[in-house]
Amino acid sequence: SGVIVLSWYPPGMADENGEPTDDLVPVVLDHAHKYNLKVTFHIEPYKDRDDRSMYHNVKYIIDRYGSHPAFYRHKTSTGRLLPMFYVYDSYVTIPEIWANLLTVSGSQSIRNTPYDALFIALLVEERHKHDIHRSGFDGMYTYFATNGFSYGSSHHNWASLKAFCDSNNLMFIPSVGPGYIDTSIRPWNNHNTRNRVNGKYYETAFSAALLVRPEIISITSFNEWHEGTQIEKAVPKRTGQVVYLDYKPHKPNVYLELTQKWSEKYRKE
């Protein structure tokens, strides 16, 4: 079964373009369970996020949702079953603060408590790999769907990142995407646009990810239309000035089919 990683803000908080979403979590969990999917959390960077507030966030999530059958737990190499949290923009917080939470001797340590989990940091620049290791994170992911946008999102750097992770007992989780175009919201960002090339871009990303044999591959995203990374079913549509991209000449579900194809390839390997 697959795992849905849900963008999450603490109760009452949201990003500047949205509304609080914690109320939606039970609905998502219930629906996921119907389809044999698991759900975990992508903790977004809210104001003043630090070791203490993160401890409370994790405690809240596990206390509230941890007993739901769709709540994801990852089986570690030592056989432990642990929740998993992706921490977006983790590099904004200095390693010393993270170490309070994520190392065994830290002042706010969550390790070996009922709230212990696998914490996955965002790697953007190469130097972040040392910070992530020092912080006590369990792994790193690359997030961005634009090959070449950052050190982490550049496919050709994945082999050396995987080697670094292997030698430091960290998980490496490359992120793949079907293309990228965010000029409807960031008109200046044209140079980061990546053409889908009828699915070839997505397949190239998957192929690069499989080459490094990671334990997990993450997909960015299911439905971020404004960044052109959606893989859900799409038909031609326009509203006012906005023309939504579609997958013609392919079928509306071509990216779901490609996802299935590569997931099966990955499982076999």
UniProtKB/TrEMBL annotation:
CDD domains: GH99
Reaction catalyzed: N-{alpha-Glc-(1->3)-alpha-Man-(1->2)-alpha-Man-(1->2)-alpha-Man-(1->3)-[alpha-Man-(1->2)-alpha-Man-(1->3)-[alpha-Man-(1->2)-alpha-Man-(1->6)]-alpha-Man-(1->6)]-beta-Man-(1->4)-beta-GlcNAc-(1->4)-beta-GlcNAc}-L-asparaginyl-[protein] + H2O = alpha-D-glucosyl-(1->3)-D-mannopyranose + N(4)-{alpha-D-Man-(1->2)-alpha-D-Man-(1->3)-[alpha-D-Man-(1->2)-alpha-D-Man-(1->3)-[alpha-D-Man-(1->2)-alpha-D-Man-(1->6)]-alpha-D-Man-(1->6)]-beta-D-Man-(1->4)-beta-D-GlaNAc-(1->4)-beta-D-GlcNAc}-L-asparaginyl-[protein] (N-glucan mannose isomer 8A1,2,3B1,2)
Domain of life assignment: Eukaryota
Molecular function GO terms recorded: glycoprotein endo-alpha-1,2-mannosidase activity
Cellular component annotations (GO), alphabetically ordered: Golgi membrane
InterPro entries: Glyco_Hydrolase_99 (IPR026071)
Key words of the record: Golgi apparatus, Hydrolase, Membrane, Signal-anchor, Transmembrane, Transmembrane helix
Record keyword rRNA processing present: no
Subcellular compartments: Golgi apparatus membrane
EC numbers for this chain: 3.2.1.130
Annotated TM spans: none
Keyword Transmembrane helix carried by entry: yes
Annotated membrane topology: Single-pass type II membrane protein
Family per similarity comment: Belongs to the glycosyl hydrolase 99 family.
Protein name as annotated: Glycoprotein endo-alpha-1,2-mannosidase
Taxonomic source organism: Nicator chloris
Source lineage: Eukaryota, Metazoa, Chordata, Craniata, Vertebrata
